[in-house]
């Protein structure tokens, strides 16, 4: 006969734990991405969204990726699905390094450029360090750096990018640790830093001992104008090699090939790379092996063709959007004309706040990103970012017309 144990007594009441109070100070400094929150309200199928900076999915080289995945699995077998080195797949690092004449040891593969920014913040920023950023700048960088407690100082910008005269004044008065910049087709404005200012920026930051993080996800997507050397390339020339350069370069395959594989990289001097390796080991050990191998299979022939395809499409869409802005927006509204990338920047009269304007626009079935989240220290209430990368000509015409009507309504 099987004996049955006596029923357990009910558990004692546990006192509540204040979980928020147990969070680290850096966790309390974290905020949700304003863009991701906005995207939640713009996902209605009948809303034309110029909000998300999304690569055009109809341009993804689906069959090429399928072929590459099959070739990788055939060639490497189980090794393609195994753990790998933190530094990244060597053939991919060799390909990246060869473009700038550096060694693979100066290249670290990361899981999307966003991880690269987070890891750079982790190894470079101490509480209270001064970080110089453009006004406005990429919201994702602010979000990555914020938990490490930087003190932001904004640099004014114009149609030629960062005002280097203003940069010099700031550096004379402020001991800065880092300067973060997007020289090519900047997110959110679409502006490009001129060659003269690139050289001056490097001279000033070297003189004052300031590290430069160059974020360049869009640099290969130029559809008009003259190709310019990266800050990293200029830094190599001025410094004489990667170990002497104070520029850290970040780029990605997300905008040129496909975003879903989450492959990006950082180029820097060995002391930076060594600490990135250690930080990445604590984050995710390594970027997925299979993804890196697939990218390596594609860079030789598919990537160049894909870049040309994307440049042509985005160039046509940007031209179309600029034409519709001129046609449908009221007087008093200004906007940038990008030479590449995925975005342009709109400034409306001071009397309009684009945060409440967004709700009015969504009511007219069109969406954008208000500009204020792109300012580290506040401001930009009368600005907005528009993305043309994933919009059809019909959507651009209908959406910009509706947005122009929304702005006219706000002006009264």
CATH homologous superfamily (4th level) name of the largest domain: Type I PLP-dependent aspartate aminotransferase-like (Major domain)
Strand order, main sheet: write it out.
2-9-8-7-6-3-4-5
CATH class of the largest domain: Alpha Beta
Shape: globular
In the residues, how many domains can be counted?
2
CATH architectural category of the largest domain: 3-Layer(aba) Sandwich
Number of contiguous helices: 14
Given as residue ranges, the uncertain stretches (5+ residues, pLDDT < 50) are none
CATH fold-level name of the largest domain: Aspartate Aminotransferase, domain 2
End-to-end separation in angstroms reads 87 Å
Sketch the topology as an H/E string, one letter per element: HHEHHEHEHEEHEHEHEEHHHEEHEEEH
Q: What level of helicity do the residues show?
A: 40-55%
The secondary structure category is alpha/beta
The largest β sheet comes out as: 8 strands, mixed
Q: What is the mean pLDDT?
A: 94
Total E-strand runs: 14
Radius of gyration: 24 Å
Q: What proportion strand?
A: 5-15%
Keywords: Aminotransferase, Pyridoxal phosphate, Transferase
Pfam family, one: Aminotran_1_2
Protein name: 2-aminoadipate transaminase
Cofactor: pyridoxal 5'-phosphate
């Amino acid at each position: 006969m099987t004996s049955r144990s006596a029923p357990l007594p009910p558990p004692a009441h546990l006192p509540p734990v204040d979980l928020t109070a147990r969070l680290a100070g850096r966790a309390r400094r974290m905020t949700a991405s304003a863009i991701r929150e906005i995207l939640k309200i713009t996902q209605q199928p009948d809303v034309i969204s110029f909000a998300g900076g999304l690569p055009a999915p109809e341009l993804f080289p689906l069959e090429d990726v399928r072929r590459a995945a099959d070739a990788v699995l055939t060639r490497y077998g189980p090794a393609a699905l195994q753990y790998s080195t933190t530094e990244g797949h060597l053939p991919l690092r060799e390909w990246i390094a060869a473009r700038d004449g550096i060694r693979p040891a100066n290249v670290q593969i990361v899981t999307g450029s966003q991880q690269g920014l987070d890891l750079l913040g982790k190894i470079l920023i101490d509480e209270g360090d001064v970080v110089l950023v453009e006004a406005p700048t990429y919201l994702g960088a602010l979000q990555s750096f914020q938990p490490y407690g930087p003190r932001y100082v904004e640099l004014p910008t114009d149609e030629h990018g960062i005002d280097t005269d203003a940069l010099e004044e700031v550096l004379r008065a402020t001991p800065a640790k880092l300067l973060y910049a997007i020289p090519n087709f900047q997110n959110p404005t679409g502006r490009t830093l001129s060659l003269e200012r690139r050289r001056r920026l490097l001279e000033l930051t070297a003189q004052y001992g300031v590290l430069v993080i160059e974020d360049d996800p869009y640099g290969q997507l130029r559809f008009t104008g003259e190709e310019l050397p990266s800050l990293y390339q200029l830094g190599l020339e001025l410094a004489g090699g990667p170990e002497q350069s104070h520029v850290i370069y970040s780029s990605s395959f997300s905008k040129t090939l496909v975003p879903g594989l989450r492959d990006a990289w950082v180029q820097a001097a060995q002391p930076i790379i060594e600490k990135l390796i250690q930080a990445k080991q604590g984050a995710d050990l390594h970027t997925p092996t299979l993804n890196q191998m697939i990218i390596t299979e594609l860079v030789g022939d598919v990537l160049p063709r894909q870049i040309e395809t994307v440049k042509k499409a985005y160039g046509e869409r940007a031209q179309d959007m600029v034409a519709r802005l001129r046609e449908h927006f009221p007087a008093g509204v200004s906007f940038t004309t990008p030479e590449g990338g995925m975005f342009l920047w709109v400034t409306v009269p001071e009397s309009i706040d684009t945060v409440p304007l967004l709700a009015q626009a969504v009511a007219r079935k069109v969406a954008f990103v208000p500009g204020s989240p792109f300012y580290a220290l506040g401001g930009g209430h009368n600005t907005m970012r528009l993305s043309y990368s994933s919009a059809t000509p019909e959507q651009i015409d209908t959406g910009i017309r509706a947005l122009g009507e929304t702005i006219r309504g706000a002006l009264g």
